[in-house]
């Protein structure tokens, strides 16, 4: 073990984990501790490590041989079974950061730190090679001026003085507070992709899940909801203020928002639709009118649509947009105005590869693929799946009875419907090589 045995959890999270041969096993995501009424300091029992395949596994502290500024070294084999938190286990970053506590040390009370929030926790190895939580880095909550809070919001730096106190002088660390911010937790997981953050949120208890949802902005929360199982989606959206829930639904992809609304009680879904902007609610109402396992029920209402006289340069600019899903970026649909679904008459499509081979000043109407037939809104899941597979496509145009484009079905929409309903919960069962 390295000479320095005291480590702060916030600095530990994100460190790479290596085996004795120097091969990277994964990355530290959290620290697991256990509290005991007979021990004033919580015992550190292990690390939560993210390994390839987005799986989070448990590495006991007995397997950790070294922790330094840049890496964690383990010994022996790592059990690749997915980490499942037990009732007596506490995740430091996920559950203790931002917790409101009371500090009883006289010097801390005199300095105004009687009431504080947890910013970080230091763990330390004892002479017996056990790891214990020894110090708490707290931030003052009382006596912070409104000007300091305003500056904090502008600079994104927290207001209030800080102090490092002995963990034995902190009361309430193991007790869930009525209100707990999730700002510090989200800072810890700031580098995660949306799907990985959704995995973390899924593993939290309902109270903490709601706190994290409250801390995310509407766009980020919308992205996370699209990656969560249906039960989690319903729980989170039901826990938000109605006005904010409507805003989040507006930020979601229309097909995902419609699926979520379909899982809500009809009265609640209608209330949310009423609160949404009319032009945002209208596509969702159309989607809800179709059977779930038809092209109309699976499609998104926001594909890339251009008029035939639009240039190839314009088309390439459209598909380069960062917010556009990769599957939708592979195809441009050419229609008569209006160009928002339902459009004017659907004329055909242009593949992105064809766009890349043509001069930028040319018109998309001159390179339309008219052989690829659109599917009607009532086309079955089986029909859509076979068509995508037969023509090696990742998206398909969907038209109404009048030949107007009303949306596009993408391969990820199809996968959501052909995979088992609980595939998001069971994805950790896939084989991952350490």
TrEMBL record:
Q: List the molecular function annotations (GO) for this entry.
A: magnesium ion transmembrane transporter activity
For this protein, the record's Pfam families field holds: CBS (PF00571), MgtE_N (PF03448), PRC (PF05239), SH3_actinomycetes (PF26205)
Report whether Manganese shows up as a keyword of the record.
no
- InterPro entries with a match to the protein in the record: CBS_dom, CBS_dom_sf, Mg_transptr_MgtE_intracell_dom, MgtE_N_sf, MgtE_transporter, PRC-brl_dom, PRC_barrel-like_sf, SH3_actinomycetes
Q: Does the keyword Nucleotide-binding apply?
A: no
Sorted alphabetically, which CDD domains does this protein's record hold? CBS_pair_Mg_transporter
Coiled-coil-forming residues are none
Keyword annotations for this protein? Answer: CBS domain
What's one GO-annotated cellular component? membrane
| Domain CBS: residue ranges | 299-366, 368-426
Concerning Gene3D superfamilies, the annotation shows: CBS-domain, MgtE N-terminal domain-like
Entries under PANTHER family matching the protein: MAGNESIUM TRANSPORTER MGTE
- Give the protein's recorded name: Magnesium transporter
Query: What organism is listed for this UniProt entry?
Result: Intrasporangium oryzae NRRL B-24470
